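Hello again, I could really use a second opinion on something today. I owe you a coffee for this, so here goes:
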Amino acid sequence: MNKAKEFMNLWGRLLFVLGLLLLTFSFAMFQGGFVSWFIFYMALPFALYSVLLTFYPLSDIELSRDIHTAQVRKGSSFSATIHMRRKLRFPLLYTVLTEKTHSPALKKQTAGMHQKMFVPGFRKNYSWTYEIEHMPRGEHVLEGVQIEIADFFGWVRKSRLVPLQQKVLVYPNTVDIVYRPMESKYDHGSMAAPFTLVKDTTMATGIRDYHPGDRVSWIHWKSFARTQTMRTKEFEDRQSQDLFLMDDRRPSEKFEIQVELVASILKSIVRSNSSVSYLSIGETRNHFPVIQTEEHLHRIMYHLTKVQPDLEKPAEDAGGRELQKIQASSLLYVTSHLTMEMVKAIQRNVKHLNTCMCLVVTHKGEPASPQEEAAHQFARSKGFTVKRVSPDNFSSVFTEVNGK
């Protein structure tokens, strides 16, 4: 239907040009004199060019795109070059190249910036390099490049969309965070520690002298029978992996900050050779049971690149069943709005929970409303740690666990 419309439009413009030429010729024939023939001969080259442009095939023009920035972070610049090549040296006048995309965020960011008008003339090759600053986070698809040519006065216009589909991934920004597990459990109680270490008693790595407090089951009885000296088995220390990170995709003006915080936390955990489970609650529940390697982290970053604030119902209703499946002893909940209902849902559904830290994302200097402050106090009364974080104090998320 669109092709038929374009065809009719093109031939309608051609008939207009031919009619205009016929009109000036008739005027010269019947009027006579220098002025009337001067008008005809002045209009003749423009009309002939318009007729020739009508039959110039746009398929002669080949377009390609080179992307210079393979990986882009939110807020950084994206750069690409469009190459135009053609076989015929037909003179082209007003030529417009337009980058086409269906991404609403990218359209808003590049309004009027991803278009170039130039006059190729007889040149067969032309290159156009453009740059988009402050790229928005997301997966943006460049559908293709539209080329449009026109004559001197716009009597004849022709356009063609050259499909050049390429994806541009704009990853969220991350901040370097020193990761420290929220709590370590030992036989004599709990204490704050920079690392969560537990003994892997399935394999002994050596023996050492007995120290008061060592378990009886750790004594190396064969060595004691030979030497009559108490010796204790040594086991490999391994890092505890019972941390669960959860966030909700509630629509909020602070959602982008929340995504950057989650990305920074996950990156810091993996880089510290620890592991974590991650649950993202939205229209769909995205659960990643184990995040431990760089490959796992890459999958998470791809998810955080595309994720949108699509949670339409309360987080406690959307993630109720998923909360019941959490087996970790430490829970880290990231949100832009903490509610009493969510605190109750965590307390009711998450079994064997020893520690829960709620990170509430805010803007710098933004005060808490009375409703928010009441929810925070309620969470603290249930033993939860609540901390309001903004981009300027992301790095102290784990080092100041008692901050408010």
